[in-house]
């Protein structure tokens, strides 16, 4: 993403690690499944598993196990980890050998479910993600899981595979959980699934899921889930696809019109479109209007695009804003601020004459559009609208540029419906920018939609 991922992988990893930390208490899925199904363990398995189950349960309150487990979680080297795990094994009475013996005796579905549960929990005590994953897969493949429990186990199998950098395996289990309707309380499934697909070179699979979910939310009148939009935007960006990226960026801005969302949305289009300065300027203007400018680069790019020699008033406004917010210093501008200030007075003094010339019957389309551009740069959108309207349809004008700027002038006056109608006329390289300005106008008039239900399919 521009400067950072839409869904930070550092945050993702921390969230997953935190989520697994709370799972240190032994699970009781097998016991619940046994009660629900009125099944029983095989005689051979019951004989060897009872002691292991008792050990795992008592280990939660055993100081020696806790101390060794803490060492395993804190280990920095392979040697430290091996020593800590050996200490956990010893504190639990040689649990690894006992588990291995129980593996051979687990022949019935309920045996395998319980064996998987025990393996997963010992893996948690040992901070062994691979062991946790093996246990969860054993549970998921046991044939004894109920639909109510299967989704959570599949999700955790996907998470542990992801933590072990087995991304194709992670996608397999996360996709199964998703398809079964499971949604984790933390809302992490979509993000982990999408990143698993990306890391296993299949970003389109995640994008297809999210697109379907977002379209369903829009069709039902529900507010699309923000995580789902960002996941889709990330996938489209990673695939370097401008058109869908612009669509999802617009959706993010429209439904979640906060500065951070607009910064992410605009930055995606800005990078993928690689527009020439005159067209990129309209993106930077939207970034300013939405309060989404974050750093020095944003301000310097805006100033470069606007060109202080062409539109000194607008350039000076951005310079002053950057300085007042601590994003720019006068040294960053290398004397350009003083030069720009010297141009503003003369430029403003010429506005009246320029307006008179543009109002003459023989004024060309280029003169009318240029006059509109000047008044737009001086934050006079009503006058700009007048001249853009007169320029529309005139020979020799850039129809896309005029429609784009007319829509902007109207949006800045609160004429949102008229603005959207003009943005819809924009095609070519300016179209992605028009989509974002359309979303800006729509965000001002879209009534608050009901959030999508947590249980609804999400990307």
UniProtKB/TrEMBL annotation:
<keyword id="KW-0732">Signal</keyword>
<protein>
    <submittedName>
        <fullName>Uncharacterized protein</fullName>
    </submittedName>
</protein>
<feature type="signal peptide">
    <location>
        <begin position="1"/>
        <end position="23"/>
    </location>
</feature>
């Amino acid at each position: 993403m521009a400067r950072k991922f839409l869904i930070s992988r550092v945050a993702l990893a921390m969230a997953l690690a935190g989520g697994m930390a709370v799972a240190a208490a032994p699970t009781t899925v097998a016991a619940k499944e046994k009660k629900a199904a009125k099944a029983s363990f095989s005689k051979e398995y019951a004989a060897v598993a009872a002691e292991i189950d008792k050990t795992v349960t008592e280990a939660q309150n055993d100081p020696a196990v806790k101390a060794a487990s803490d060492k395993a979680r804190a280990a920095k080297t392979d040697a430290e980890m091996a020593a800590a795990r050996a200490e956990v094994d010893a504190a639990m009475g040689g649990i690894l050998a006992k588990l291995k013996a129980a593996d051979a005796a687990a022949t019935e579905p309920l045996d395998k479910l319980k064996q998987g549960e025990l393996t997963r929990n010992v893996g948690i005590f040992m901070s062994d993600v691979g062991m946790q994953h093996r246990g969860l897969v054993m549970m998921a493949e046991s044939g004894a899981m109920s639909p109510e429990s299967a989704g959570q186990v599949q999700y955790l199998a996907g998470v542990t595979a992801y933590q072990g950098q087995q991304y194709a395996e992670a996608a397999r289990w996360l996709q199964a959980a998703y398809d079964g309707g499971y949604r984790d309380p933390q809302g992490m499934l979509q993000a982990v699934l999408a990143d698993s697909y990306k890391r296993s070179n299949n970003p389109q699979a995640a994008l297809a899921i999210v697109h379907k979910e977002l379209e369903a939310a829009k069709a039902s009148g529900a507010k699309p889930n923000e995580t789902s939009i960002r996941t889709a935007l990330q996938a489209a960006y990673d695939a370097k696809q401008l058109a869908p990226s612009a669509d999802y960026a617009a959706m993010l801005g429209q439904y979640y019109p906060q500065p951070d969302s607009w910064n992410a949305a605009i930055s995606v289009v800005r990078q993928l479109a690689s527009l020439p300065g005159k067209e990129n300027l309209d993106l930077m203007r939207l970034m300013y209007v939405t309060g989404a400018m974050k750093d020095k680069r944003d301000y310097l790019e805006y100033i470069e695009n606007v060109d202080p020699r062409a539109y000194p008033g607008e350039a000076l406004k951005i310079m002053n804003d950057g300085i007042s917010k601590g994003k720019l210093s006068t040294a960053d501008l290398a004397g350009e601020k003083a030069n720009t200030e010297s141009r503003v007075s003369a430029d403003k003094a010429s506005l009246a004459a320029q307006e008179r010339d543009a109002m003459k019957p023989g004024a060309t389309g280029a003169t009318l559009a240029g006059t509109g551009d000047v008044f737009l740069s001086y934050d006079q959108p009503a006058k700009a609208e007048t001249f853009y309207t007169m320029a529309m349809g005139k020979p020799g004008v850039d129809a896309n540029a005029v429609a784009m700027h007319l829509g902007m002038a109207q949006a800045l006056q609160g004429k949102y419906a008229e603005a959207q109608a003009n943005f819809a006329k924009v095609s070519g390289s300016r179209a992605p920018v028009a989509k974002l300005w359309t979303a800006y106008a729509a965000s001002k008039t879209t009534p608050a939609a009901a959030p999508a239900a947590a249980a609804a399919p999400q990307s």
